[in-house]
Amino acid sequence: MEIGSLLYALIPSWTSVSIYMIYLAYVAIASFILPAKVVPGRTLQDGTRLHYRCNGLLTLVSLIGLLGIASNMNLISLTLISNRGLEMLSTSFIFSSVVASALYIAGCNSRSQSTSLKPQFTGNFIIDWYMGVQLNPHFLGINLKFFFLRAGMMGWILINLSNLAKSVEIGSLTLSMILYQLFCLLHVVDFLYHEEKLTFYWDIIAERLGFMLIGGYLVWAAFITTIQGWWLLSNKVELSIPAAIAICTIYLIGAIGYRGANDQKHQFKMNPKEPIWGKPPKVIGGKLLASGYWGLARHYNYLADYLLSLSFSLVCGFSSPIPYIYPVFLIVFFVSRERRDEARCAEKYKEIWGEYCKVVPWRIVPYLY
Ligand code: NDP
């Protein structure tokens, strides 16, 4: 695609803006009206606790059901998103930038509030806009951080399903596309099924909401993670059965480790005495888990997530680096994220953290890093 036509394709049309806004409105309204399990979040610095309505999976399933009905009645085309990928991407980017700016302004206006959770500023506008100034901003009663996170994960599946419909329409459906779709769908369903455990994720407990997270959810999680699906639309890959089995094995190791590590930490936080892998947990200083996956490396969950991302890309073969943009980025992302989390934990847990690092010396990859 020439640079001129690429730039032209990036200009959002009213249709893409409308699709985007209707989608976000649906996610917001459904999260209020559909039945939900209400879970308390972590206790915040000022002693308060937020409550989260967890019904992400039901929201996604109902949305897919509604889209199926609308498509059967010829009200919409399932390839709508696939046909407008670039402008949907730029719409998402512009929307994330606008929201980050609005949150920065709202933070400035509430600078004087008295709780210990008042907005934090570094004084550098770019950093504050990018990293955010408020921990848990709300709008019309919606917890924005939680909302954008689930909107991004659901968006990932909607884009993929639209690309699947497109590949059927143009006759390019392959084993690679089927495996890629299946892997992502299982990952997102697993994520939303365990949504209540998000309340222990670092994003939720510690990160302020700025462009980094909003763009991370709405642009990165929804669009960049779908890059393999977009690529497979115009590139045919002949995947042999042994190669497919090997990639499925990598996916399974990643999926089991991802769920296992995140569940073990959640279980430990809820009930520190519950056995891990059939044995009483090894606990450092009464606060840090050092058994199970958390005894293999201090962030085995990142390694497992990385294996998932690798399996998404491997189905595309090795003829192009484009499908590997996601796993390559994740290396940089996880290494820096682990360093920042490490600094936070060292400050929070003091000498206990040092002791944990001695017992579990590996950061992400056991015996390697
Ligand atoms: P973690 O779930 O690893 O959470 C880190 C926090 O857990 C720490 O700040 C600390 O918080 C607590 N903790 C750390 N070690 C221990 C321990 N040994 N025992 C008890 N508590 C401990 O990190 P993330 O929130 O970054 O990641 C969650 C998941 O989300 C991961 O699986 C990750 O792969 C995934 N993810 C994926 C992304 C992607 O783009 N693919 C992006 C970001 C995350 P506390 O104060 O509670 O003790």
TrEMBL record:
Superkingdom to which the source organism belongs: Eukaryota
In terms of InterPro entries, this protein maps to: ERG24_DHCR-like
- Record pathway: Steroid biosynthesis
- Identify one Pfam family in the record: ERG4_ERG24
EC number(s) stated in the UniProt entry for this protein: 1.3.1.70
Biological process terms in GO annotation: sterol biosynthetic process
Look up keyword Transmembrane and say if it applies: yes
Name this polypeptide is given: Delta(14)-sterol reductase
